[in-house]
Design goal:
single chain; about 20% strand; about 200 residues; alpha/beta; binds S-adenosylmethionine
């Protein structure tokens, strides 16, 4: 668990924004420190994408993982203009870009990423394929809110099962289910196929 003293200042500001704005959807532990850890592993010239900025909690954890690095880009997409503006007004490193727009519309235009946190309706509950398309070979996808036991609404339960099945069945991915927090699934995109050549010929 992350104690209060271990929560980075930028994350605390994003949490304070959520309180001020009455925003209920911030990412829950252990997603934040996990995002920071995975961001730190993104290679030089790499790219990170978050779908659904909210008040910037996930963005802040990702930036925490990158620290002073200037060789990785961090982009986040938020459909709500006022949320995007509130996040943009904070003090971010120059490698952070907050896009305003619908994730499914923007996804095909943004290129490929080494790490994607899919945390919006679009690109997760719908349009998941577009998100997987946007993963670079070897890229990591993080999806939360996958713990079925948290939901009673039959439609929401069906949506969780659909996302889980889509990820597990996608031949481009290797996935792990991590029963922590709101329920995590992490997927790695396999390298793109090359023409097959036997090692022994
Ligand atoms: C669960 S919250 C994101 C929380 C944030 N990632 C965090 O770590 O605290 C989901 C966010 O997705 C945004 N959203 C919903 N539909 C969207 C869409 N079609 N495109 C982009 N963002 C969307 C919502 O406005 C909301 O801010």
């Amino acid at each position: 668990m992350t104690g209060d003293t271990e929560v980075p200042a930028r994350v605390r500001r994003a949490l304070a924004r959520a309180s001020e704005l009455g925003f209920p959807g911030v990412c829950e532990e252990p997603v934040g420190p996990l995002l920071a850890t995975l961001a730190a592993a993104v290679p030089p010239e790499g790219r990170i994408l978050e779908l659904g900025t909210g008040t910037g909690v996930g963005t802040a954890w990702l930036a925490e993982g990158l620290g002073q690095r200037g060789d990785v880009r961090l982009e986040t997409v938020e459909v709500d203009e006022s949320l995007a503006a509130a996040v943009r007004a904070d003090d971010w490193p120059p490698y952070v870009t907050v896009h305003t727009g619908d994730a499914e519309t923007l996804l095909p235009t943004l290129g490929r990423f080494d790490l994607i946190f899919a945390d919006a309706v679009a690109g997760k509950w719908t349009g998941l394929d577009l998100t997987i398309d946007a993963l670079a070979p070897g890229g990591l996808l993080v999806v939360d809110d996958m713990e079925l036991g948290r939901y009673t609404d039959p439609q929401h339960r069906a949506a969780v099962l659909r996302v889980e099945r889509s990820l597990a069945d996608d031949p481009r991915l290797v996935v792990a289910r991590i029963p922590a927090g709101t329920g995590l699934i992490i997927g790695t995109r396999r390298p793109d196929r090359r023409p097959s050549r036997s090692r022994y010929s």
